[in-house]
Design brief:
Number of domains: 2
Structural class: alpha+beta
Shape: globular
CATH superfamily of the largest domain: [2Fe-2S]-binding domain
Helix content: 25-40%
Distance between the termini: 52 Å
Strand order of the largest sheet: 2-1-5-3-4
CATH architecture of the largest domain: Orthogonal Bundle
Bound molecules: FE2/S2 (inorganic) cluster
Number of helices: 5
Radius of gyration: 16 Å
Length: about 170
């Protein structure tokens, strides 16, 4: 066992893990953060995407020990905690836009998709449709056909740029 200290969603954790423990399994099984999904375990689907020191990674490709001393953000830390209990008020613009633009069906890919999109929008606050598709190509969705996902990301981008988005 190896001891790791990782800040996850703004909280500091210190745990003993096996050297082979994947970050996604640490998040889900040790911390109970089951909002981060496992879709394939072979780095194909992106369902497990989180931010490691601010950049999106597939957490099934990272060992927990590699995140020692790092900051990890998951879908569970994305909403503003100060508005807990206030329905959608504290949601991140991406969460809101996936809801309003119907960017999900079963929702399995959604946490990873949103975390990947959040990283994309940090890099490019005004992505074209093609740029969104390219930016999210490592995240697979077996339900939606991607059209509404792309719409949702562009709607969130507009809101984050301070533009008025559809009522
Ligand atoms: S579970 Fe990590 S990429 Fe599929
Ligand atoms: S909404 Fe079902 S996999 Fe994307």
């Amino acid at each position: 066992m190896t001891s790791v200290r990782i800040a996850v969603d703004g909280e500091n954790f210190e745990d003993d893990v096996e050297p082979r423990t994947l970050l996604v399994h640490y998040l889900r099984d040790v911390l109970g953060k089951t909002g981060t999904n496992v879709g394939c375990d072979t780095s194909n689907c992106g369902a497990c995407t989180v931010h490691l020191d601010g950049r999106s990674v597939k957490s099934c490709t990272v060992l927990a020990v590699q995140a020692d001393g790092a900051t990890v953000d998951t879908i569970e830390g994305l909403a503003d905690p100060s508005s807990n209990g206030d329905e959608t008020a504290g949601w991140h613009p991406l969460q809101r836009a996936f809801h309003t633009e119907h960017g999900l069906q079963c929702g399995y890919c959604t946490p990873g998709m949103i975390m990947a999109a959040a990283d994309l929008l940090q890099e490019n606050p005004d992505p074209s449709e093609d740029e969104v598709r390219q930016g999210l190509e490592g995240n697979l969705c077996r339900c939606t056909g991607y059209v509404n996902i792309v719409k949702a990301v562009r709607t969130a981008a507009a809101e984050m740029r301070g533009e008025e988005v559809g009522a």
